[in-house]
Amino acid sequence: MVKKNRVAIIPARGGSKRIERKNVIDFMGRPMIAWTIEAALATGAFDRVLVSTDDAEIADVARQCGAEVPFLRVANADDITPVSSATIGTLIQVESELGEVYDVVVQLMANCPLRRAEHVKEALTRFEIRRPESQISCFRFGWMNPWWAVSLDNNDRPTPLHPQALTQRSQDLPTLYCPTGAIWISTPETLQRYGTFHCPAREFAEIPWQAALDIDDHEDLAMARAVAQADG
Predict the structure, then answer these.
(1) DSSP secondary structure of 145-186
(2) Are residues 102 and 181 in the same domain?
(3) Residue 16's pLDDT is what?
(4) Residue 128 to residue 162: CA distance in whole angstroms
(5) Per the structure, how many domains does the chain have?
């Protein structure tokens, strides 16, 4: 068994539903997954940048973009299984088929194309200094203030989720953060022990909201394209 330092795993199953073939659709002139592969490679921080997929086309595109796909995913390819399980399965395959174990695993979702190499490097530096059980990227809520969120009944009458916040000025309310799939980091041992990056002693690490954009549907895709165009 060969002990290595860091592995980046990019989960990319073929059966996306809300956007068909999402991981390889065109995003600003390149396949969606290319952006994440290029960001991971540009860090220079990984012994391997692996794409975990059950799909031959995605595997071919990933290889053309510089990632490694030494095997196809043998399980956890449905739309119900948590993505952490796919990453754990990849680590098991890496050990059994490649004879390698790693100190650190970084999961990078392919549907976060605006996360850059510098964001990954900053997250890695933070993780290796602080050494939490796991570290999950997040962004700070801005103009969409969740403190003022309401649910609506059948007659469109609102019920505030945080009624105490309605009497406070926005600047007096605590800052709230939302997790994003852009950069998740842990050790293989911790990830396999808990079966998730959401372990008890996890920490959140903030990245810019633009880098945090998760593309799940066509509205997200349009927004991400607009942000990418604005950034030039």
Answers:
(1) -GGG-EEE-TT--EEESSGGGGGS-GGGSPP-EEEEEEEEEE
(2) yes
(3) 77
(4) 36
(5) 2
